[in-house]
Amino acid sequence: MNKVLFFNPRSAEAKHRFPNSIMAVAASIDNRFEWALVDGNWEKDPFEALAAYLRTGEYRYIGFTVMPGPQTKQAIPIARKIREQFPHTIMIWGGYFPSNHAGIVLESGDVDFVINGAGEHAFPALLDALENNKPYELIKNLVFRSGEKVIKTAKEDLFDQDPLPSLPYDKVDQFYPAGQHYLGKTWMGNRTMAYHSSIGCPFTCSFCAVVPLYEARWKAKSAELVYKDIKYVKDKWGADAVEFHDNNFFVSEKRAVEFSRLLRPEQMNWWGMARIDTMNKFSDASLAAIRESGCRMIFFGAESGSDKVLQALDKGGTQNAEQILQFAERMKQFDIIPEYSFVLGLPADTEEAVWEQIIFDINFIKQVKKANPRTEIVLYTYSPVPTEGSELFEKVKAAGFVYPRKLEDWCNPQWEKFDLRKNPLTPWLKPEMIDYIRNFETVLNGYYPTASDIRLNSPKRNMMRLLSGLRYKTNFYRFPMEIKLLQRIWKYRQPEIQGF
Ligand code: B12
Ligand code: SF4
């Protein structure tokens, strides 16, 4: 039987976490195929590490997981080298980048198959077909080339998560001892683990990359199973905090509360992502139970303070500006820090309208801070994802925005910045607007330094606040060099780039 080699390209500079994407698909073939893992986060020369396995001649299949940004930067050139030096290897990519950009990935000629969305059924089915020379054309969630054509098969319904095979923690530990590699020091704990307890999201926000993959579907592991996995990692490797990487952990109030009750005796801090309108419906008793179990901070997509923009973003219809402010206020009584992300720089009919929206949202963010100064703010600039058919994406295309035409172009520094949602190449967003947003961000981070930076002690925080106060209060954000200098010296962290 041929073996399978998995590659997790470098995704962060530090604080590496369990490669959950690879672990989910590796679990699905664990009892049928021998497999090995190369984690680009831990290899000086990841190509060499992969090549060492491939030279044995035992590995016919190689699976890459690729999210946009830094992972593409490592994945693209390495895939090319593998194609050149090991041409008989069958290369299969999965994850958000290839799922959303399958055409360009396959047209490169370096990748043979893309798994579009969930891989737990599609991947073993594909390997079975290839091993046994059977047709693969009817396997769901698959994209491949047939001559010059790119063929996308039907999407599979999301399946129940509990019956899936257990995550291969012990096997991963053999390649990269988990205690030293996958539990990091964060503001929540000394040995923070990452866990992914549900797949997809039931909403259809028009700017979000999750929508084309999971088409408004969501399936979760039961509270018991999530607890069992976390307890396993705690008992075996000493995890003392958990980051939930689910797109939307809190879809079910019942599950969140059940899980909280189970976790409470373990005394672990935790963090997850949610929607404001969903959580605002949670009872006070539920929110209290969640906090008592160790939940310290929750990430919410606030997106904008304008109801018109929220509508254009298709935020589900029930989230509005008033609610965003009130909810920030409500979280104070539970001592849970709300972490609000905003998407600035959406397309509008005129340049003035783009400016107006930016200034409006910046002022709104200041209102949020007034309502609850502990609210953490994460500022993104809108980087289009191909949410085909949405009004927003139609507007984006009409404005002349185009994605790179070749896979290797995604490695250009400008497209990397696009992925980081810091400096998108959208035609309506002028450089001075980006400067304005980034300068405001610097002043905001100076006046309200993030609670998640464990290196910033009180004197440093006070110093930054003092330095930024006048600018913040007078809306003067231009050239905040003095704050930038301090942030550089103290290596101020940005959660959205450097990991949660
Ligand atoms: C963890 C994570 C990170 C971490 C990386 C962790 C680390 N320390 O190494 C950090 C914080 C660094 C990060 C950063 C970024 N991330 Co990120 N990240 C995630 C997150 C939350 C979880 C990924 C994960 O483990 N999923 C769990 C697995 C089980 O799900 P999955 O990946 O979808 O895998 C399934 C399928 O896709 C498929 N599959 C996946 N891989 C493979 C491989 C093979 C071979 C096969 C067959 C199948 C397959 O099968 C799996 C099981 O069904 C996702 C959101 C999410 N919930 O997935 C965002 C997400 C992938 N990130 C995203 C982005 C944009 C980024 C950034 C580029 C930008 C940003 N500002 O956020 C930065 C890059 C900065 C940087 N320095 O790397 C976006 C991608 C959006 C898009 N346009 O496609 C996502 C979807 C978040 C979002 N909702 O917007 N990220
Ligand atoms: S609620 Fe969040 S994860 Fe779900 S579609 Fe909207 S932005 Fe995406």
Task: Summarize the structure in words.
With 500 residues, the protein is of the alpha/beta class. It folds into 2 domains: 3-145, Response regulator (Rossmann fold), CATH 3.40.50; 169-498, pyruvate-formate lyase- activating enzyme, CATH 3.80.30.20. Helices cover 43% and strands 16% of the residues. It has 22 helices and 15 strands. The chain has helices spanning 20-29, 46-54, 70-85, 96-100, 102-107, 122-131, 169-175, 178-181, 210-214, 223-237, 253-263, 276-280, 284-292, 307-312, 321-332, 351-371, 391-398, 413-419, 431-447, 458-474, 481-489, 495-498, and strands at 3-8, 35-39, 59-65, 90-94, 113-115, 142-146, 149-152, 192-195, 198-200, 218-220, 241-244, 269-274, 295-303, 337-344, 376-381. The strands form 3 sheets. A 7-stranded mixed sheet has the order 2-1-3-4-5-6-7, with helices on both faces. The longest helix is centred in the last third of the chain and has 21 residues, at 351-371. The radius of gyration is 23 Å and the shape is globular. The model has no long low-confidence stretch (mean pLDDT 93). Cobalamin is lined by residues 11-12, 15-17, 20-21, 24-25, 63-65, 67-70, 92, 94-97, 100, 115, 118-120, 123, 196, 209-210, 245-247, 385, 419-421, 496-497, 499-500.
